[in-house]
Design brief:
By secondary structure, the chain is α/β, with parallel strands linked by helices. Helices cover 38% and strands 23% of the residues. The chain has one domain: Response regulator (Rossmann fold), CATH 3.40.50. It is globular. 35% of the residues are buried.
Length: 142
């Protein structure tokens, strides 16, 4: 399945280090949830190119074709889940921040994700934390 075109966020001109756009890979099968996350990133002032993928094959393809600054992942995806997505990222040899963003995630799942190397996890009903979580995760990986 082809990957969706990247959404460009916050195209205002900028200079220096902040001119570089973040490359965000978003694993999300819900277009409205993706659009809401993109809106929160934009309103939070992030300059970003966001690519939405919704299948394991699309995720693997995106990881192999481009370098990313952060991965945002829903937990429940068609044919796989956020924990599997973390493992695929590890197996790719890339060391990227991985943030789990889910509508419903139990404590056991959140703990498993953090133990598996997730930088953070957020509930979809609390996306106000998205920009700080992305900024913190990227800074911690530098």
């Amino acid at each position: 399945m082809p990957v969706a075109p990247a959404s460009r966020l916050n195209d205002r001109p900028s200079t220096g280090a902040e001119a570089r756009r973040l490359r965000v890979l978003h694993l999300e099968d819900s277009v409205p949830d993706h659009e809401l996350a993109v809106l929160h990133l934009l309103r939070g002032g992030l300059r970003a190119d966001v690519l939405r993928v919704d299948t394991e094959a699309g995720y693997r393809e995106a990881l192999s074709q481009q370098t990313w600054d952060v991965v945002l992942s829903d937990f429940n995806l068609p044919g796989f889940n956020g924990l599997r997505a973390q493992q695929i990222l590890k197996d790719s040899g890339q060391d990227l921040p991985f943030i789990l963003v889910s509508g419903e995630i139990g404590e056991d799942t959140a703990v498993a994700a953090m133990r598996n190397g997730a930088s953070d996890y957020l509930l979809k009903n609390n996306l106000a934390r998205l920009v700080p979580a992305v900024e913190h995760a990227i800074a911690a990986h530098r």
